[in-house]
């Protein structure tokens, strides 16, 4: 019993006992624990810090002009180079090709022979018409000779009839013969005229075997070869050619673009345009609006616009893809301010502290940049200050995104949107 009481006394807490002093071993343990916690924190940041970056989509800012000359772009569109004067040249008649005198890329002048057809049938028809003309002329000569004799006989009998040396019946018969020959001569002369017209038509038939260029231009396609049958009506089906070749008047080249109905109000006749061929992206070609076609495409909801090219160059050929920028009218020199501007998607704009800002991606960080906005350009906005073009900006920045925040780009850069879409 006394042993149990002694054991209970050992377990009792003595509140008046002074606290034990911590020795050097206990401090070492606490330091080791802190070091382990620090190492674990660094490892956790290394493993999960990259995943903490905000995923974003981006777009590229487009520079749309500076001061001087024509103003900034108000609308962009795409289209093609077309020729207003282009012809697929064919023969007027059906025939077999004898010779082709053109090649692709060759320049031809108006009236130059492009090809010839086999003229056997046309020549035979002409020879027949020439023979018919000769026969008609011979018949006319015969009737003229007979008429001359009949007129002399009628005059002689008229004198004898007055002297009552011949009967009146003989005189009347001579007059009738003379008048009949006069009618025959008139018919023969008409036959000569008809035969002459027939010969001229036969000459045209022979000339139709020669295919000539209707205007000066460049051959872009050679469609027939010697020995083939050509016909303007393609009477022979798949084995008959309908043309000899295609000629394009390079001086008639212009640009046709389709502009969305929502933006056609920005386009005016005589409006300055800057064109860039897809084949030569660094070459800016001056151009001008010719006309707005007064008809809309119901399926595409677009309106066609014709644009004149002010520069003639051999590099510009039909059916080339081209991107055009419709520019503001030129301002007076004293009113022009040399301010570069840029175009940014409206989705890239955000509000921070009551200011318009965008987040420019620099490396893996998003830098908040204040901007001054200009006009609305469809789904884009003009930026007059803060951006110069070429920057990569965050689209639809989340509210939690702040200056210097880590970002992770998830999309392939698609650039600014096209206003004409």
TrEMBL record:
Residues 343-409 form the YknX-like C-terminal permuted SH3-like domain. InterPro entries: Beta-barrel_RND_2 (IPR058792), MdtA-like_BSH (IPR058625), RND_pump_MFP (IPR006143), YknX-like_C (IPR058637). Residues 133-160 form a coiled coil. It holds the Pfam family YknX_C. The chain crosses the membrane at residues 27-48. Residues 255-327 form the CusB-like beta-barrel domain. Keywords: Coiled coil, Membrane, Transmembrane, Transmembrane helix. Residues 85-231 form the Multidrug resistance protein MdtA-like barrel-sandwich hybrid domain. It comes from the Bacteria. Residues 388-421 are annotated as: Disordered. Belongs to the membrane fusion protein (MFP) (TC 8.A.1) family. This is Efflux RND transporter periplasmic adaptor subunit. It comes from Lysobacter firmicutimachus.
